[in-house]
Amino acid sequence: MHLGVCRVKLHLPDSSSLKDKRQVTRSLSARIRNQFNVAVAEVEDQDLRQRLTLAICCVSTDPAHANEMVSKVVAFVEESRRDLELLDYQTEIISGV
């Protein structure tokens, strides 16, 4: 079994409150879950209104498939919302779990 794990750091320039951030977070997380069948959670920066850090995780029997899924999610995040700026992302494939 192989885990594909990715941490995505985003900037939300239009977010003026934590309520705005929460709306963007819920919407984006739901779209990622529905389209890719992966786990998504906000993992850092909960108190910063213009910074969003999501962790994305998928499980696969093939490490190449896990890597492909994570890469597709990152591309989706970049293209799906014009009001978000991708600051950084880190990908890791954990094998032999």
Defining traits:
4-stranded antiparallel beta sheet; Alpha-Beta Plaits; 97 residues; alpha+beta
How much of the polypeptide forms β-strand, as a percent range? 35-45%
- Total helix count? 2
**3D shape:** elongated
By secondary-structure content and strand pairing, the structural class works out as alpha+beta
Total number of strands:
4
Question: Mean pLDDT, nearest integer?
Answer: 91
Level-1 CATH class name:
Alpha Beta
Number of domains: 1
| CATH fold group | Alpha-Beta Plaits
Distance between the termini: 6 Å
Q: Low-confidence parts, pLDDT < 50 over ≥5 residues?
A: none
**Strand order, largest beta sheet:** 2-3-1-4
Cα gyration radius (Å):
13 Å
User: How much helical structure, as a percent, in the residues?
Assistant: 25-40%
In CATH, the homologous superfamily goes by the name TT1725-like
Describe it.
It is a single chain. The chain is α+β, with helices and mostly antiparallel strands and 97 residues long. It has one domain: 2-Layer Sandwich (Alpha-Beta Plaits), CATH 3.30.70.1120. Helices cover 38% and strands 38% of the residues. The protein is built from two helices and four strands; from the N terminus they run βαββαβ. Strands 2-3-1-4 form a four-stranded antiparallel sheet, covered by helices on one side. A hairpin with a 6-residue loop joins β2 (39-44) and β3. The termini are close together.
Topology of helices and strands:
Blueprint (H helix, E strand, L loop, with lengths): L1 E10 L6 H19 L2 E6 L6 E10 L2 H18 L4 E11 L2
Antiparallel strand pairs: 1-3, 1-4, 2-3
